[in-house]
Amino acid sequence: MQKSFGRRINKIRKEQGITSEALAVICGVNPVFIRQIEGGTRTPSLPVFVRICNALEMSPEYFLQDELKENPHSCDREEIIEYISKFTPAELKMAKNIIQAMEISFSDKED
C-alpha cells in the first residue's frame, strides 16, 4: 500500500510543479518526511494525510484507490464519483468540460 500511495503523491506533486520542500511547508512537516512517504517507507498520520490531499487538491480516494474495496450497494452516481476521484487534475478539467458541454446540449433539447 505505502509504495503505490507514495507514488501517487509524488506523481501529482510533480505534475503540479510543487517541490517536496514546498509541500512539506504547506503541510507543516519535515521535507524528509514527505520524501519518506513518497518512497513508501513512512505513512502519514490522518491529519497530515488530509493536509496533503488539500495541498494537492486531490481526493483521499485517489491516493487510497488500491486499498479501498468496491461497494456493491453503490448507485451509478457513486460509481461515477469513484471514477472521477481517481482522475489527475488535467483529467478532472477535461471531465468538467465534457459535463458542461453535455449540460448545454441537454438544456438545448428541453427548449
TrEMBL record:
Signal peptide range in chain numbering: none
Pfam families linked to this entry: HTH_19
Boundaries of every HTH cro/C1-type domain copy: 9-63
PROSITE patterns tied to this protein: HTH_CROC1
Keywords: DNA-binding
InterPro entries cross-referenced by the UniProt entry: Cro/C1-type_HTH, Lambda_DNA-bd_dom_sf, TransReg_Diox_bact_type
Coiled coil spans: none
Domain of life: Bacteria
Record PANTHER family: HTH-TYPE TRANSCRIPTIONAL REGULATOR, METHYLPHOSPHONATE SYNTHASE
Name of the protein in its database record: Helix-turn-helix transcriptional regulator
Taxonomic source organism: Blautia hansenii (Ruminococcus hansenii)
